[in-house]
Each structure stands twice: as structure tokens, then as C-alpha cells.
Design goal:
alpha+beta, 32% strand, 2 helices, four-stranded antiparallel sheet
Length: 150
């Protein structure tokens, strides 16, 4: 007799479906030359006023394996895995946390300044400040007069 758990959220526990999706994704990626969806790190972007916070999920990565640079208004995050020694008696039973080389890029404004990058508990957080020059900031115009407020 086999035992299968039933979940309210079946896609989180149905490994047969996710494994099939990953295989199909890899096949189409191989044919088209695109990067498979499951090898691209997941990320969040949060906006606070004119500032942004980018958080990239990178479990198992260390800062020596990561490079962050800005070129032509593009924020690039590059991950190059280092070879690690596996113990002779160890063998993976199941592995779904992939650590593949990656290169992701985000368009940023020409006025953006990278203020801080921090890697903690598998999350890379990059704080981006968007400094608008004075001539690009919105100006409020009083309706009752022709005077411009500063």
C-alpha cells in the first residue's frame, strides 16, 4: 500500500508535476537557447519613494562567488559557483536547490546610485537610491497665481 499526502496547495507537494515541468522547461530552453526558468534566481523589488530595494534569493552562495557591477545603466549580478569537495560516502537522495552559474541584469535609471549590497541568510539585498537632479523633480504650480513654488 502506498501513501500519498494530500495538500490544500498540491503544486507545492506534487513533485511529479514539478519534475515534469522542469524537464519540459529544460528541453525547450535547450532548443531555443534561452535560460531555463528554474535556474534563474527568484527576486523581489520593493519601492519606497524614489528608492528601490532588490532582494535576490541565493541559497548556498557566498560573496566570493558573486559579482555585482553597473554598466550602461544595467545592474548585473553574476554568480560563478566554486567547486566543492563532496564527501566520499555522501550521496544526494533528492536535490532541488540548484547552484548553477547565472547572470541576471536589471535596467536602472541613469540617476541611480547603488548604496549598499548585503548577503545574509541566502538573500542578496541591494539598496538603490534614485537621485533626481533638481531640474527633473516635479514642480508644483499654484493654480491661483503664476508663481511657481520651490
Amino acid at each position: 500500500m502506498s501513501f500519498k499526502t494530500i495538500s490544500i496547495i498540491p503544486d507545492l507537494t506534487d513533485s511529479i508535476f514539478s519534475d515534469r515541468f522542469n524537464k519540459i522547461d529544460k528541453l525547450f530552453s535547450h532548443l531555443t537557447g534561452n535560460i531555463p526558468v528554474n535556474t534563474t534566481p527568484k527576486y523581489n523589488i520593493k519601492r519606497t519613494g524614489n528608492n528601490f530595494e532588490l532582494t535576490v534569493s541565493l541559497p548556498g552562495w557566498n560573496k566570493k562567488e558573486l559579482e555585482i557591477n553597473v554598466t550602461n545603466n544595467r545592474l548585473n549580478i553574476i554568480g560563478i559557483k566554486q567547486k566543492t569537495e563532496e564527501k566520499r560516502n555522501s550521496k544526494w537522495i533528492y536535490k532541488s536547490i540548484f547552484k548553477n552559474n547565472f547572470n541576471i541584469s536589471y535596467n536602472i535609471s541613469k540617476n541611480s546610485i547603488i548604496k549598499k549590497a548585503k548577503l545574509k541568510k541566502g538573500l542578496l539585498t541591494i539598496k538603490i537610491e534614485n537621485k533626481l537632479p533638481k531640474h527633473e523633480k516635479p514642480k508644483k504650480i499654484d493654480i491661483n497665481s503664476k508663481k511657481i513654488e520651490k
